[in-house]
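Fold it.
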Amino acid sequence: MSYYLVANFDVIDQEMFDQYRPEVGPTLKKYGAKVLVVDHAPNDIEKGSRNTLVILEFESEAVMMRWYNSPEYQAIIKLRTDATEGWMRGAPQFEMPSPS
């Protein structure tokens, strides 16, 4: 079952974040992630959204965690965490319950 990683953040250090962007792509590719959304001006329908929205799709939660904890990603993670303020959350693909 697919697993999604959703990040919503503001960039507070553009120079540092610019170092992160070209480095993260190869790590995602290695773990088969699909980049579904990257939006730097998402529609803030109910207020409180940050300036950047990213949605990634992984094969499973286990694969997402392997990517997140991989040496490749851990080597660059501070470029993201120190350059941004916001949050990341993971969630499994929704499956409609069978009718009773």
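The chain has one domain: 3-92.
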